[in-house]
Input
Amino acid sequence: MIKSVISNLTFWKSVGAILIGLALFSIIFRFVFGLGAATNLTDEFPWGLWIGFDILCGVGLAAGGFTLCGLVYIFNIKEFKPIVRPAILTAFLGYLLVVFALLVDLGRPDRIWHAMIMWNPRSVMFEVAWCVMLYSTVLALEFSPAILERFKWKTPLKIVKAITIPLVIAGVLLSTLHQSSLGSLYLIVPNKLYGLWYSSLIPVFFFLSALTIGCAMVIIESYLSARAFKKNLEFPLLLRLGQIMVMLISVQLVVRAIDLIDRGVLNLLLIPRTETYLFYLEIILGLIIPLVLLSIKNIRTTRVGLFYASFIAVLGFVLNRMNVSITGMETGSGVSYMPSWMEVFVTMGIVALGFVAFSYAVKYFNIFEEPVKADNSVGDVVAKEINFSTVLKD
Amino acid sequence: MSKKGILINITKCIGCQQCVSACKIQNNLPDTEETKLSITAYTVVDEKEERYIRRMCMHCNYPTCESVCPVGAFEHTLEGAVLYHAEKCIGCRYCMMACPFQVPRYEWMSRTPTIQKCKFCIERIVKGEVTACVEACPVEANIFGDYNDILRIARQTVSAEPDKYVNHIYGENEVGGTTILYISDVPFEKLGFKTNLGTQKLPELTWSALSKIPSVVAVGGTLLYGIWWITNRRKEVIEFESKMKESQTNNQDEEN
Output
């Protein structure tokens, strides 16, 4: 038993180290030889995997933070309190990694501060830049109690706790703007983005799907954390999150169907081409399967059932963002794009970094309400070493 | 200075590449032969359907690049030129993503990359001269002038020979109109032009979303605060009531 846990640990640690190493190499290569040498981006296809996955998906998957903060502090549903901190931590790490990916993707990362003093309020990217800056600050403040408690800095802790409500309101507003504005980025390309995805409602779709995936991510985190840290979170809470997901998914299905009819593009659903298949796959994975799974009582009321429904919803969500940013843009741009190995390495390294950062944060700060308890059969040493990624193995 | 424009008459172009060479000299670009726009070719002459088509930045009347740039690195001048200021650029490449004509080129291999594209020879125009490419044209396939004049010439040329010309001035209405106009005797879609762009000014599309931000913040903020106030009040009332009950029972206990 101990041996298998240790070998799992070593295995996942090595995988993480290798991924981060490859990413580091690719990033150095990118900064020495230029974006063109490291990526498959071209003049016709200037945004690739880093924008599509690292940024669009990264921000979306961080939506659990503001969703839960809103539920707990604004709607006063206090039962969710035990999972607020892990959700904020994920969101905070998510945003830090998004900023990191942005620095790698920008042609002149040394000038990122330009957006603060050179304004163009007519640009969606300007809105995105400000949302990232402000919401990262809000998240840092929302997470700061965990750090302040650890070092017992009482006065700043008091101040942060006193401004909790304004902070949460600012966080919810900024997230709403940020999630939707990532969709608004694509409003300007009606001739490039394929008809199944281009819609004037795309900011609304991005916002609704982010809310859904916010709930899904909390369910997934709770499930994985429960396994990794032997911490049982209140199951009825997750059930309620599942119910909220059902509601949000139903709304999405209806709004997206009406949108297709409204724009008169239903005929696109019958054209046999890659975009059509990917669209169906996205809808089936992101909306239909989760909706069905969450509607069946025997599945919905088990931890595993909830977990898989959420996990499949996340897959569908990722596919949606990739469709909007990559596959849906290829035909309109007149070129095809496949990420280079280095682009893939950087993305995988960033994901690995996220897992590592999360496991360290859980180790050093009080993230889950009660202190992490060691499983007796494994022993204290191993328990300390337990890594978030180990749970993916089983 | 009034708005200028260039009328490119595809029927007259002989493909001599004089405009391309003149552009390279004007902008100090290396003298390499290219078939597509690049960081070293702000204009190229393409061949399709036995016609020569000169490609360049269209200098839109409602420039998408200018509207999407987060740091305002693009400038739309009164002369109609859309200029790029490299010193502001952060390299997000949204201008390239958004350009309906796929014009901006990027220095992909540079450590300090910038966008490269036609500058409408702004230094020459403000001195009252014509652009280098138009000046170099030996056959009047390019006409430079006040925008209204060249638009009138375009209309007259097309209507004078309706059997020869396609009844479409490319750039008159596309994405709200462009400073560069084309007329042709071969349908534009066959010559590699995007004819599905529509006439809407693209910046309006994003503005329709951006302009809602103040109301989202105001309404959303009020709503969130209101909901918090109600739920918080409810909690306070419950706490107060339970306290009252407690003290009542305490009092009763004491009386007993």
